[in-house]
Amino acid sequence: MNGDAQTADRQNGARTRFKLVLLGESAVGKSSLVLRFVKDQFDDYRESTIGAAFLTQTVTLEDQTTVKFEIWDTAGQERYKSLAPMYYRNANCAVVVYDITQAASLEKARTWIRELQRQADPSIVIALCGNKLDLAARRQVSQEEAKKYADEEGLMWTETSAKTGEGVTEIFTAIAQKLPLTAPSATRAGATRAGPGARTGVDLNKQATGAPGQPDACNC
Amino acid sequence: MDAPTLVLVPPTPLRFDIPAPPEVQHPPPLPSSSQQRPHKGRDSVRDSSDAIFSIYSMYGDEHTSRASTSWASPPAPAAKHDRTRSNGTLPPTVTLNLSPERPSSFFASNGYARTSLAYYSDEDTPPPAPPPGADKPSTMVGVDNSPRESLATTSSARPPSSYVTPSSLRAPSDLFEDHRLSGLRTSDLSASSYTHGPSNSRDFRSGSPHSKRSSRSSHNPHRSLRDLPPLPPSANPTPSPTPPRQPSPSPVLLTPKTSLNQSQRHHQSNVSSPSSKASLAPSEGEDMDAFHVRNTYAQLEASGVRGDGYEEGIERTRARVGNSRASQLEADSAIADGTEKKRDLDAKELQVLRNVDRYGFFSVTSHDRLVLLSAAPLLKKLSLAPAGPPSASPNATPVKFLPPASISPKETSRISKWNRMLVPQKPQQGGNVQSWRLRPSKEGKLRERTYKGVPDRWRRAAWDMLISGRAGASASDYESLAAQYRDCLDKPSTYDIQIDLDVPRTISGHIMFRTRYGAGQRSLFHVLHSFSLRCSSCGYVQGMGPIAATLLCYMEPERVYACLVILHDAYRLHDVFSPGFPGMLEAIYVQERIMETTMPGVYAAFRKHMISTTSYATKWYITLFANSVPFQTQLRLWDVFLLEGYDLFVAVAVAIVWVYRDHITSASANFETVLSLLSSFFIPENEDALMSWIEATLGDKKLRANMVKWRQDWKGLVAAGKDGNALL
């Protein structure tokens, strides 16, 4: 949708914009992840997203590179799937969310990932995100299972809790670092994963580096 | 159809078939705040426990403990049996409904408040304790048409003594809501009405006697529970006896504001949905998780939920709560039981009630971006507009807080105008008004007055009249739709799990929908469930929830179901909700043509920034602006929608773009600024200015003719397979 704007900004250097899309089954917490990331808030019962919601958030990496995410938070119900292509088309990155307390939601995540691999830009960076870590006592999806799948597919993977905030900033920061920036890649290579807003906790390094399938080429 | 006000005899009366002796078992003192427990409660309770029990048993061990836990009250064994039997035939469940004690109580309290208001209206100060009699407004039954008047009457009329019959109590609070009259229905009346046939019963009547009865009973129970103090066991057809509940709440809390009353009434009315049955059996091939969802709602319909209206409630389905003992115990404790009834409102409840606005919202959902929808641009009619100055700001004025709901200073005079404009349809059984029609001499006033905003207490009647008028729906149509609604409750829907995921997050800032599995949430679930079975191509679509919830603020579930059916059939929502959302795309095409012809600069800006209309307008067209403007603005838009049809939403979309046109064409605008702006939550600076602009726009015959033509053009493009590139 705004490819020209992205290109222009990228050529300017320091400030980079990326289109990010959230996909996943209904009620896994896509909107809550975005709300936590963008406003650092949480609602127990967030209104269901109709169509898609657009938000932006900026992340500053350690090397002072600024990355602006243009986030498309999509509706989860199957009926809205027909609208999804317009949101992931030209997306630079996708966060596919599942709910660790719902085994079926991981299956749904797999279908989204297959669709992205088939239909989206080949250079898209995909992160698989198991949300609702605060409900780990009711876990139905083991970390091993999800990680194994992510490794096989070359995806970034982590678990988050939009409710507590755990892992949320980290995953967006990790994505920002994984994206091909116009800034000198050497600078970024040495950067650790923590952005300014990063919390301690989940180490995304492994997952990020464990994504061999991701081409590093610029996709502008 | 139902008269907004008094008229209706609440379904409750049904119960009365059996003459309920007004026994006041216990001195029902003041309206107990939150929960009143009906005496009958016990039996009912019991029943519910049984039901619960069975559910659990299906799912596992706990029942035992649970059963014991939850229901402390000594049940009468007999009751169970009754229930069982009844299940077979009728929806015993209904009967069971006693449940809502909590909720009911809550509402009841509201009802009370109303009542009290009505009574005490003369004095501004709320009466310390409502006299028991307050509830029973025996005198005026269905008589009044006009809400207002009725109020007055009511107040004067009520005998303090009235407590006697539960029916009387209930009646007022619930259905009749708004209107006034809460107190109107007297027990006596109810009895009579009963006999004759419940006028209101609108919904109920459809089925076989059984069905009717059951349904009614269900309603009744709620009400009865709520309001009334003690019911004679006999009163409930089924197992009724629950612990006596006290009449509700203290009027004290409430101020005589109308708004409160109204909202409360609404709640009540909503709440009352009777429909569910207590015990269900899984259908063949039904997914067990889906059955669990459906069954849970049915069970809770019977048992009620603790703290309904002011507590959050416990999740039982959405998170597929595990089997841990702790979680089960927690869930058990969330069921209403006889031990919790109190006469006084507790601090929590007080606080919630104090914060409730006239529409029933006690808290404001946090919206991401609130922006002012300025009035100034609306002073200019829609016409060819040159692009604004490049130096204009790309951003609109942000708003920090959602403004509180307000009441138009003209509300009072409008109410009297509507009093004169609408007349009851032929009085039906019992003399109660089921529906309203326009007085022929006032036909010329309808459009203008609708644009000015239907007074809230007339809203239910006006909406009902507009909807019925468009569809040509008769009372018998409503009866059969109500029967269909109830029948569908016994059938599985593949959408049950999705609906359950969405119910607790649908206008959860509204007091009726706040408590998990509270009466409002149950009604919402049931309406969406039944509606999902209505049209196989639409099924359930996210976005229907806020629409149904809005209607539930004004009507009982059966009626909401019927209205949804009519919206689907006669207001073209079928096209909107069908796979691929063809009706929405058509509306977007029309919107784009209007923008292109009147605001070419804006249209060019959208093209330049590559902003498709679907990216910001999808939720407008699918939720009918339910989550994009303040509730009271949404209501006004809906007033006109029901008059004008779906074109209204195209006009609103164009109005928003019109207001922000200079921001959109600003030289410093870009993809992000434009899209963020149009994805905002809009606070109209002046609602009347917005409505006037829309009135002028939709009153432009040339434009309307063009809209018709563009719709045809779109259909042609679709038929030719050329629609793919026809939109921005």
TrEMBL record, chain A:
UniProt xrefs under CDD domains: Rab5_related (cd01860)
Database matches in InterPro entries: P-loop_NTPase, Small_GTP-bd, Small_GTPase
Classification via SUPFAM superfamilies: P-loop containing nucleoside triphosphate hydrolases
Compartments where located: Cell membrane
Record carries keyword Iron-sulfur: no
Low complexity bias spans: 185-201
Annotated keywords: Cell membrane, GTP-binding, Lipoprotein, Membrane, Nucleotide-binding, Prenylation, Protein transport, Transport
Signal sequence interval, chain numbering: none
Molecular function, one GO term: GTP binding
Chain segments carrying region Disordered: 185-220
Domain of life: Eukaryota
Biological process per Gene Ontology, one example term: vesicle-mediated transport
One GO CC term, this protein: endosome
Membrane topology listed for this record: Lipid-anchor
PANTHER family: PTHR47978
Protein name (database record): GTP-binding protein RAB5
Higher taxonomy: Eukaryota, Fungi, Dikarya, Basidiomycota, Agaricomycotina
From TrEMBL, chain B:
GO MF term (any one): small GTPase binding
Bias-annotated ranges (Polar residues): 86-98, 151-170, 184-201
Source species, domain of life: Eukaryota
Compositionally biased spans, kind Low complexity: 269-283
InterPro entries the record matches: Rab-GAP-TBC_dom (IPR000195), Rab-GAP_TBC_sf (IPR035969), Rab_GAP_TBC_domain (IPR050302)
Region (Disordered): 1-48, 64-107, 119-285, 386-408
Composition-biased stretches (Basic residues): 210-223
Domain Rab-GAP TBC per the UniProt entry, residue ranges: 453-645
Comp. bias (Pro residues): 19-31, 229-250
Classification via Pfam families: RabGAP-TBC (PF00566)
The protein's name: Rab-GAP TBC domain-containing protein
Organism: Cyclocybe aegerita
